[in-house]
Predict the structure.
Amino acid sequence: MLNLRNISKHFGNLKAVSNVTFNLKEGEIVGLIGPNGAGKTTLISLIDGSLSPTNGSATFRGEDIAGKRPDHLARKGLARTFQIVRVFKEMTVYENVLVGALFAANMDLSHAKQKVKEVLDFTGMSHLTDKTVHEITLPDQKKLQITRALATNPTLLLLDEAMAGLNSKEVDAAIELVGKIRAQGISILVIEHLMKVIMNISDRIIVLHHGELIAEGTPREITSNEAVITAYFGERYKKHISQMHNMEEQIIG
């Protein structure tokens, strides 16, 4: 579905992303992790068209997307949420979602209204339909971003720390929602610092450090990778991870 080959983004002498190569398959959830400043959001922005690459290639469903505008890619089925919530704060929840259906999905008003109802029901936001964004909580604003993205009929959803700042109960609900989204046939690339989330939802994980891809594999492979432990988890987690793996083996045994 998504293929990046040696994709890079330089800001002057700063190499925010450097020669990253990976792919994402149909129906797959890929987690993207790394320390702060590793280039994760920059990479997402190269995929959704917010930034143009310095070099390298990117294709989405066989189409060259490097340097294409976000609105073009949204109409092709590529949707995104943002770490810092971006919604229309003076508008209602319903109006925010309607914008997605009308603009990106390119529906007529009748079909757009039906789509809005469907996605509000799907994400559990129907009770907030007439509330303005100012009247709802930050967790609900984050869910609103996802709801609006779903109204665009995406085949690939990019989630940038959609669960940051949520409490434990809200995180569990968000994990459940991501599973429901995947069950609809939507592929997902997710940036998240909460390892509970990444380990629970990801089929594969890719790890960035200083703009470079340093590891790729299953959740278990990543948590056992010495380079990832050093760059991201820290040595203090090595014993904990080892104990976790031993417990898993005992349970399986």
